[in-house]
Amino acid sequence: MSSMLVAEDLSAVGGISLSAAVPVLTAMDYQVAALPTSLLSTHTSGYGRPAVVNLADWLPKVFEHWTTAQLDFQQGLIGYVGTVELCQLLHDYLAQQKLDLLVVDPVMGDLGQLYSGFDDQYVTAMRQLIQLADVILPNVTEASLLAGLPYTTQPDLPTILTALQKLLKPGAHAVITDVTQNDQIGCAWLTADGVQFIGEPRLAGHYNGTGDTLAAVIAGLLGRGFSLTRTLELANQWLHIAVAETLADKRADERQGVALGGLLRAILTLG
Length: 271
Fold this sequence. Notes:
Shape: globular
Structural class: alpha/beta
Strand content: 15-25%
Mean pLDDT: 94
Largest sheet: 9 strands, mixed
Number of helices: 9
Radius of gyration: 17 Å
Distance between the termini: 14 Å
């Protein structure tokens, strides 16, 4: 059983971030080391202002303990971090590890804007963190911010992906995760043959936690040895299943993350 370090926020209510990643990766037969970067009473969409605990004082103690205990992780997934200080702490720790795979979802904005509380210093800190990554998973907004290019809903994919690749180490891949083409939504990345795209039909509505779920699936499949292309095919198919199940459930509270039942069953049938 491989071990996967997952560092992102933990919301007590909302079904996103760590709450989504842990069951997904556990179903993929990983031993998950769940490292919350912050604790929230709820996620930040629709519940009002949550109670938040910043864990900047705790993380160095965790890393010291893990080092003393000689804990080693084969893979890593980094999601929402939250502060420049935490980005630097994670960077310094991960730079000393010998991971086979590091996937970074540089969560910091959407719809052309940085999330509240973030600034250019945070973008700079995230650029440093992704230098360690084997795969990064920005949305279009985050890709634009990292690349230093203007945001548009229909970006020039060759230009923005080329700019992102220059930020990464040799052999790493930038994958933009919310690209729309011909009524489909999916992932775009660059190969020697040009821009590649894999997507699924866009379903109506907005669903919290889709990016977190997609990132966990991608990290899990890559860690199990699937190619990037096959990983993105399965990840988009399974996320479509999750969103379709959520839509069919007609939930009374739309603030919750996506339904994971069908997605987890798909993972388990993979063997």
